[in-house]
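Friendly challenge for the regulars: who can give me the structure tokens for this chain first? No prize, just bragging rights.
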Amino acid sequence: MKGFIIKQMSWEKAKSLGIDTWEVWDSGPSVTEGEFPEQETCYFLEGELLVTVGDTVHLIQPNMLVSFPKGLPCKWEIPHYVKKAYKNNFEWE
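First reply, four minutes later:
Bragging rights claimed.
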């Protein structure tokens, strides 16, 4: 889907984008399905997340920056624990 971007990024590069000032969210094991109400950019700090978009499953791990476009239908599976910094409507590319 257009606007769905996954990019490996060092913590140093992430800090240069201001990610160390973003809101932080974490969660234990869960499965969630739905659509993003607005564009969200996340930098994953800990754990793993499986994101299913269409028929493709993406493994998201620490030091990955992910952009979820508004209206993206997807499924999130958190097998153990995940922690991310996030910001809505952030333009980085």
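Residues 69 and 82 are 20 Å apart (CA to CA). The chain has one domain: 5-88. Your move, everyone else.
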